[in-house]
Design goal:
Bound molecules: 2-oxoglutaric acid, fe (ii) ion
Order of helices and strands: HEHEHHEEEEHHEEEEEEHEEEEHH
Oligomer: single chain
Largest sheet: 8 strands, mixed
């Protein structure tokens, strides 16, 4: 009896049928190529130099969503020089590891409340697409300004709020810095995104080992409804992007953040930057944990192509829309769209 009570939903020898996607969604062959040509940008070398800023924008154009930004890559220091300044300006590894560990502890707790306060925990059985469940658990909560929403976060594990706020302070600095580089690269005025990036959402996923990953998905193909998303995926592969009609793996690089260009940046840049489709596949032997931080406009912000990017040759491709309308119309956070909108609005 005890064994049954303590066993988790993923402790199964055979894949339960509720997790088997129809053929059109199944990942099938998981040996898709790892894209080693996804650009890795050394932020320490960017420092506002026009060439590097252009490189960031070029990378976003060519590869859609992904730029890998790293502080230091142990073992790579010969091929990619790492300076002390990088470490000083980067996110300390300890803060990232602490955040990963406290989230692992959260997901490992045997009972987790759902929809408590302003955060939303979904078990693998909660979210279904055409009746089929994702092989993952997820936790989402608003996270900006931290002091206004920290009380909405889980308080068990007891270190959760302290550790996650320390992590998010760093993420917010990094996201502003990246947005500033992007605005410079697009020819927008300095600070263009500052007021527009004030609503942030943390979304963490845990993907336990799966008996048959060729039939399941951790996350369905989607584009992020954000301006940008900063994603930490630890050392585990699983994230795939669609490039030239093929799914390719975004290889995990130690201490790297993946920067995902979201739909809102695609609109504001009048499609100079593209947000690309991505999904997460499961693994037979690894537990994968990821922390995504969505940097979003506030609900009332009107999103439209930046005026300086629109002219006779390149007319606006979008009609202006409030961000909340976009989110509602596209059901951007699935069945939790309304709950998330409410949580973001009521954080003050
Ligand atoms: O877990 C991942 O690697 C990706 C998560 C993701 O795409 C999302 O949260 O939107
Ligand atoms: Fe995503």
């Amino acid at each position: 009896m005890k064994e049954l009570k303590d066993s988790k939903w993923f402790d199964v020898e055979y894949l339960p049928k509720e997790y088997i996607f129809s053929k059109e969604y199944r990942p099938g062959n998981l040996d898709s190529p790892v894209c080693d040509s996804i650009p890795v940008i050394d932020l320490s070398k960017v420092n506002g130099h026009v060439n590097s800023v252009e490189a960031i924008v070029k990378a976003s154009k060519e590869f859609g969503t992904y730029l890998n930004l790293f502080d230091s890559i142990p073992g790579y220091s010969d091929s990619i020089p790492v300076t002390k300044q990088v470490i000083n300006h980067g996110i300390p590894e300890k803060k990232v590891n602490d955040a990963m560990n406290v989230l692992k502890e959260f997901f490992n707790m045997s009972s987790k409340e759902t929809h408590t306060k302003g955060w939303i925990y979904t078990n693998s059985t909660d979210y279904a697409k055409d009746g089929v469940h994702l092989w993952r658990e997820n936790l989402k909560h608003p996270c900006h300004p931290i002091e206004d929403c920290i009380h909405l976060w889980p308080d068990n594990p007891t270190r959760y709020q302290e550790v996650i706020s320390a992590y998010l302070v760093e993420i917010q600095k990094l996201s502003l810095r990246i947005l500033e580089l992007i605005s410079e690269g697009l020819g927008l005025k300095s600070g263009y995104f500052k007021d527009m990036s004030e609503v942030q959402l943390l979304s963490s996923n845990i993907y336990p080992p799966c008996p048959d990953p060729s039939l399941t998905l951790g996350i369905l193909p989607h584009q992020d409804p954000s301006l940008i998303t900063l994603l930490y995926q630890g050392q585990s592969n699983g994230l795939q992007v669609m490039k030239d009609g093929q799914w390719i793996n975004v290889g995990a690089i130690p201490n790297a953040f993946v920067v995902n260009i979201g739909n809102q940046l695609e609109i504001i840049s009048n499609e100079k930057l593209k947000s690309v489709k991505h999904r997460v596949v499961n693994s037979t032997n690894e537990t994968r944990l990821s922390i995504a931080t969505f940097v979003n406009p506030s609900p009332d912000t009107i999103i439209e192509p930046a005026k300086v990017l629109v002219n006779e040759m390149e007319p606006s491709r979008y009609t202006p829309k409030q961000y909340k309308e976009y989110v509602q119309y596209n059901n951007a956070f699935g069945e939790y769209t309304v709950a998330i909108q409410n949580a973001l609005r009521s954080k003050n």
